Amino acid sequence: MPAVGIVIGDGNREYPGKLTLYVTMTCIVAAMGGLIFGYDIGISGGVTTMESFQKEFFPSVYEKQKNDHESNKYCKFDSIPLTLFTSSLYLAALCSCVVASYVTRAFGRKLSMLLGGVLFCAGALLNGFATAVWMLIVGRLLLGFGIGFTNQSVPLYLSEMAPYKYRGALNIGFQLSITIGILVASVLNFFFSKIPGGWGWRLSLGGAVVPALIITVGSLVLPDTPNSMIERGRFKQAETKLRKIRGVDNVEDEMDDLIAASEASKLVEHPWRNLLQRKYRPHLTMAILIPSFQQLTGINVIMFYAPVLFQTIGFGNDAALMSAVVTGLVNVGATVVSIYGVDKWGRRFLFLEGGLQMLISQFGVDGNPGVLPKWYAIVVVLFICIYVAAFAWSWGPLGWLVPSEIFPLEIRSAAQSVTVSMNMIFTFIIAQVFLMMLCHMKFGLFIFFAFFVAVMSVFIYVFLPETRGVPIEEMNQVWRSHWYWSRFVDGDENGRVEMGKVH
Ligand code: BGC
Question: Which of 65, 86, 278, 350 shows its CA 20 to 30 Å from the CA of 410?
Fold first, then answer.
């Protein structure tokens, strides 16, 4: 997930500061923000395959599943209310992004986190106690609104609190906590599905209240960021806070830069209109295409529906949930590889290697539903793991990191909202249409995503310059020396306007 804030640093100055207890606490809060997002991504697929859940809320899906042995197995989960249960969350997140960005700016990051936490608690409780489909969907909407708030404020909070040296790692750290959330959800689904009486799904859905409470309480006890205080005119308070956070007294340089960044960003009257200027064409292109492509890899088909998918091709209930745990583990492990490699091997290498690996594995994932021989089932899971690993060290973290490091200050927050919105729109579309597509295209569906993976890899190869090790304020050079983008940015001085640093 991205940070949308503006954090100053001229690239040459070294601000003094230690990794204090305050900063460590911010990491924990960030982890909760990511965990809850991941938990919501991972929980719905497993829950929708639990028989007792289907019987209670989606009896037609249950009947089809039980009695209909004739018709196309790929269609047994094709139900609009069922997909709405999953996808409504992303639509809500998209809508609340706009309000959240205003609240975060005008009232501070803490209030935004608090609102997110409260909405999460309400959504989790409504889901856990649901007795009708509308309660499920309203619960998911509340969770989605919560995500709009926390995904806006938590990464921003982190970027502003962290000593600048740790900012890059923290950006992918947030993605790591998303993957841990997905994993926790699939492990819990596995165990809760075994509870006699069939009410385990209530624990799965209601369980989201635990990270939700932590983030709610966290937002009350954590300090506001100095950046946010400056933004709201509280300079003295901000300076005292900065000293405390960094654990040192000489924070003048950083303080000056924070004030300068805040002033500069206030001068930008029309960030949205700015974004349409010709010189920002490369940035706008990336802000739109990178998050869209990230979703068109098809990753959320696996994240949302892995158990459904595994059941469709003939796995038993248990095996399907277990396989989701396996892919969840691979997802976490490969994200760690990305943290290690992103500044060593570069973004382009990871994008291209990941793309190729996903392409190969998508052609490998093929299956005829029915009773699968065991070796065949293992091969399918293996290919899915290769695919998930590829995503988790390429498009997963880079889909957020690269946009956040290429935007110059004057368009940063506007461009970043474009990135977040595009991500949510495509997540919603994929969640909503996947089961329908599976029904009509069967495993041809993976060829459909493979096509996009091929297109996006060529796009990266041709159009994305390497940004590894380039100070953000010098990013304009990268476009200037690019064979294609140079025609848009050449000859203007926006590189010098650039003064911010954000991850
Ligand atoms: C994506 C999510 C996805 C997750 C999987 C994130 O970067 O934005 O849509 O579910 O990675 O780990």
Answer: 350
Structure-block tokens of residue 153: 């404020």
C-alpha to C-alpha distance for 133 and 484, rounded to whole angstroms = 51
Atom index in ligand 1 nearest the CA of residue 1 equals: 7
Q: How confident is the model at residue 5 (pLDDT cuts 50, 70, 90)?
A: very low
Adjacent-strand bridge partners of 501: 7
Q: Does pLDDT of 70 surpass 70?
A: no
> 96 Cβ partners below 8 Å, 6+ apart?
144, 145, 146, 147, 148, 149
- Asked if residue 36 lies in contact with residue 212, where contact means CB atoms within 8 angstroms, the answer is yes
> How far apart are alpha carbons 207 and 56 in whole angstroms?
19
Cβ pair 1, 174 in contact under 8 A: yes
- Count of C-beta atoms within a 10 Å radius of residue 121: 20
Torsion from C-alpha of 64, 67, 69, 73, nearest 10 degrees: 20
Measured between alpha carbons, how far is 57 from 133 in angstroms, rounded to an integer? Answer: 6
CA 1 to ligand 1 centroid distance, Å:
9
247: pLDDT strictly greater than 80: yes
Q: Among positive and negative, which fits the CA dihedral 189, 191, 192, 198? A: positive
**DSSP 3-state percent helix, strand, coil across the chain (nearest 5):** 80, 0, 20
427 lines ligand 1 (CB under 6 A): yes
Cβ of 242 less than 6 Å from ligand 1:
no
* Identity of the amino acid at 375: W
Tell me: the pLDDT tens digits for 210-231? 989 988 988 888 888 888 888 8
151 lines ligand 1 (CB under 6 A): no
Rounded Cα gap, residues 39 and 357, in angstroms: 26
C-beta atoms surrounding 344 within 10 Å: 10
Structure letter (DSSP) for residue 223: P
Interval 103-156: pLDDT, tens: 877 777 788 889 999 999 999 999 999 999 899 999 999 999 998 888 777 777
72 has a pLDDT exceeding 50: yes
Does 256 score more than 90 pLDDT? no
Pairwise pLDDT comparison (374 vs 426), residue with the higher score: 426
CA-wise closest residue to 403 among 393, 412, 390, 392: 412
CA atoms within a 13 Å half-sphere pointing along the CA-CB vector of 494: 25
Q: Could you give phi then psi for residue 478, rounded to 5 degrees?
A: -60, -40
Assess contact for 328 and 182: CB atoms under 8 A.
yes
CA of 182 to the centre of ligand 1 (A): 9
pLDDT score recorded for residue 71: 54
Q: Please, which pLDDT band fits residue 174 given cuts at 50, 70 and 90?
A: confident
Q: Where are the alpha helices (DSSP H) in 367-443?
A: 374-393, 395-406, 412-441
- Per-residue confidence (pLDDT) for residue 164, from 0 to 100: 66
